[in-house]
Amino acid sequence: MTEDQRHYLENRLLDERAERLRRLDAYRAEEGTASERDRSGDLSAVPHHPADLGTDTMQAELDAAAASRESRELEEIDAALERLYREPERFGLDERTGREIPFARLDVVPWARTVADEGPAAR
Question: Is residue 123 a part of any domain in this protein?
Answer without folding.
Answer: no
